From TrEMBL:
GO terms for cellular component: cytosol. It comes from Thiomicrorhabdus sediminis. The gene is nadA. Catalyzes the condensation of iminoaspartate with dihydroxyacetone phosphate to form quinolinate. The keyword Transmembrane does not apply. This is Quinolinate synthase. The keyword Iron applies. Gene3D superfamilies: NadA-like (3.40.50.10800).
Amino acid sequence: NAQKQELIDEIKQLLKANNAKLVAHYYVDDALQQLAEETGGIVADSLEMANFGAQSDADMLVVCGVRFMGETAKMLSPEKTVLMPDLNANCSLDVGCPADEFAKFCAQYPDHTVVVYANTSAEVKAIADWVVTSGNALQIVSHLKAQGEKIIWGPDRHLGHWIEQQTGVEMIRWQGHCIVHDEFKKFELQRLREEHPHAKVLVHPESPADVVEQADVVGSTKVLLNAVQEMDDNEFIVATDYGIFYKMQQLAPNKQLYIAPTGSKTDSCNSCAHCPWMAMNGLQNLAECLRNKAPQVEIDETVRKKALVSLQRMLDFSR
Ligand code: 13P
Ligand code: SF4
């Protein structure tokens, strides 16, 4: 533990020396979330992470999350150095939607507006007309519906299905999925609800439809956190990555939280959901990347300029 404290002290000192800020997602290790809070950085959902990076006057952003979050920070702040503890921290939605294949898919429907989830590469965003996150997807698709637009959606099929149900819009959908949320199981959730009949069910919309159907609240990580604080209920079953429990417990210390079961017995936290890519961020590689000022997120300038159009459209809409 003395060793851990030494690392934390070193990270704090390096952040200060480099005028750097930590931008962390709710799914990363508790110690990193705590460090971001203590040093004037942010712990947030993907939408707030993007906004924070763009508005910060830091010279350097250290993104503790997955690759698309680092890329988004760099696209919005090309003048800043953007570091990540491990550039291999990816996302199954990003991996499962290669830009060349997605471009061919879109080319089949030239009269459609292309809406992509933020969990995609810069190259995919460069093909898109709009970027959305789970925090604003419903509003943006409703807006496009009101304008009579026909829509191509990618890549998360469950989020796409939920948006279709909520808005009544039929979209041409790419069939990607999140390997973490896709593991939540209908029957296991039903059983847990029977054990805790007063618990309200909070679900991230990357989960399968038969899990989303059981939810009292569906939304982004930020929406789920707000629900726990604002609802009068005392018990909650939470279907999203267990990393969020750090913040949830902190914001609502008197509430009882249960992680929704995944049905798999092999995960590190005994059948609960945790993103293996988010877990690639740790104190050790965070300290190392600050010491070395590497690895840095770099994006081809032509791609960045194109992707910025769809990304900025989203941020302007959400303002
Ligand atoms: P949020 O935008 O809700 O933070 O989701 C990002 C993500 O990767 C969820 O798996
Ligand atoms: Fe991607 Fe799922 Fe991990 Fe989020 S939890 S980063 S959607 S793989």
